[in-house]
Amino acid sequence: MRVLIFADGGRDIGMGHAVRMKLLAGAIKNNCSITFYTNKEAFSYLSSDQWEVIIKPVKGQKEFIVREINRQAPDLLIFDLLDMPCDWLEEIKKHSSARIVLFEEKREHVIHLCDAVINGIYGGLKSRTVQMGGAVVYEGPEYIILHPGFEKAKQLYQLRKECRTILVSLGGSDPKKLVFKVMEACRRIPDIQRKRVIIVMGGAAPHADDVRAHLTQMPYAEMVRQTNDMAALLSRADMAVVSGGITLYETICTGVPCIVLSQVEHQTETAEKFAARGAAVHLGLGECISADVLARHMSDMAADYPMRSGLHQNGKPLVDGRGIKRAAAILYDL
Length: 334
Prior knowledge:
- The protein is α/β, with parallel strands linked by helices.
- It is built from 14 helices and 14 strands.
- Helix 1 (16-28) links the parallel strand 1 (2-7) and strand 2 (33-38).
- The longest helix has 13 residues, at 16-28.
- 45% of the residues are buried.
- The model has no long low-confidence stretch (mean pLDDT 96).
């Protein structure tokens, strides 16, 4: 099957789209011939000897995409783009009979132009399948695309009574630079010297070197840059401070109790859903929270095993880590 995947990433929009599509490509590569189309910022991340990666032009993208579709004659088109333009799809359908799949799309007039929409994040925490015109919409955490390692990590993770290790991960680019606020909060936790803090920085975060410099004054902390095994890092943690994107789903899936600092408004919706089920502590938009308030919440969670245990137990049923298998099966069945 000939597959073209369109996904961007970078400092301003984050790396979630690119991360999700790279994982999905890895799951289907043995049965498909894949070409990625992306922006300059995500090119190096998506590059692989398993598929071709082409940088889209900044201007004239619609015309470029139509030309490429005519040249490549794909069977399947996958779009994971922020606010996919409706007129692109209308033009594409004039030139191609390829099946079209969108990720994280809730605009009905756009959905009606597709064959399937996979919304792992949009919708509630109870997964469902809905027919909208000629498209099938798959919603909920059952369809969230995570690294295959999380399914095993979920089975093996055991919550310790003593909180020894705190993991911090604020997305691929950390656009609000919340990591500095978390580091300041750590300094204000009375017994922080007795703990280990692991700070995970994504490859699109331009301030990683500044973070590393600050860590010289935090001997209890270490920085990991652009990890390929987040499941292993989370498996070491007794609690976490995360943003409200894909990292939140990874954390809930593994079973790690967490505090959520949302980077942008739409992340607050996701985080509130988990908080309402007693699976996370959501403090709202991270830029609006003081280091003192964050330090108090971190200190309270670290000291309160019953609280951490409750978050762990409440989150376990919500994300099973098998979404990537379900998404691949949907593509094969189209």
